[in-house]
Amino acid sequence: MKRYVLVTLGPLYGLMMLVMFILPCFSNEGMSLIAHSTSELGAQGTRNAWVMNTVFVLLGLGYGVFGIHSLKTYPVLVVMIVFFATSLIMTAFFRHAPIDPALPHDALEDTLHSVFATAVGISFSAFAASLMFVPVHRRMRYSALGMLMVAVLIPILMFTVPQWKGLFQRMMFLSAFLWLIVVFITVSLKKT
Fold first, then answer.
1. Cα–Cα distance between 127 and 84 in angstroms, integer?
2. Residues 12, 32: Cα–Cα separation, whole Å
3. Rounded to whole angstroms, how far apart are CA atoms 156 and 9?
4. From CA 34, how far away is CA 40, in angstroms rounded?
5. The pTM is what?
6. What's 23's DSSP letter?
7. N or C: which end of the chain has fewer CB within 10 A?
8. Cα–Cα distances in Å, from 87 out to 23, 24, 34, 92, 189?
9. Using an 8 Å Cβ cutoff, are 136 and 187 in contact?
10. Cα separation, 26 vs 115, whole angstroms
């Protein structure tokens, strides 16, 4: 299982990194990896938005499938990871408003994007909190507490210092998706 997780989610994680850090250079004028979120990279009316939205779908599918397989003996965790993955996929289909507020956009679509993006954060936080009560190694429980703190504190930073929200969100994504790979491997190894 460890090999399959690494061979599949490892390259997917690498793709996410490349897209998050390089796509702003090929997006709308004024797009910044420091100031703009990944949702804004995939926003309505944004050049090459399909690239970021494809990554959201692939991440949701990949992490959802491996989460279900790795966590199958923990049904509550499976429900949370499926909710997380499904919400992430839905953020690709219901896109953020453009960074230029003067551009026409679908306000309902933007609202639905916000709902699903919030669901991603809540379900990830619930997953991390729940993992603290699963019979895994103590270090895994501590890492779950750490990721819960990241999942709560970074969004607060994003709202407090909005000119840095893109950088903060990328830090959160890098740590969260890497941590999930470690969780899937660790929990699946514990079962064998």
1. 9
2. 23
3. 28
4. 12
5. 0.94
6. G
7. C
8. 22, 23, 24, 9, 27
9. yes
10. 27
In tens, the pLDDT along 58-70 reads 999 999 999 999 9
Interatomic CA distance for residues 59 and 69, integer angstroms: 15
Reported as a single tens digit per residue, the pLDDT across 78-135 is 999 999 999 999 999 999 999 999 999 999 999 999 999 999 999 999 999 999 998 8
Q: Which structure tokens are listed for 51?
A: 């690239």
**Rg of the chain over all Cα atoms, to the nearest angstrom:** 17
Token pair listed for 80:
């949370």
The residue written with tokens 């279900």 in the block is 68
pLDDT tier, 191 (very low <50, low <70, confident <90, very high otherwise): low
User: How far is Cα 190 from Cα 192, in angstroms, rounded to an integer?
Assistant: 6
The identity of residue 70, as a single letter, is S
- How far apart CA 98 and CA 116 sit, in angstroms, is 17
Q: Which amino acid is at 126?
A: A
Which residue, chain included where needed, has tokens 């954060």? 121
Query: What are the sequence ranges of the domains in the chain?
Result: 2-27+35-94+104-191
Two tokens at 139?
A: 């270090």
| Identity of residue 92 | A
Contact in structure between 10 and 67 (CB atoms under 8 Å): no
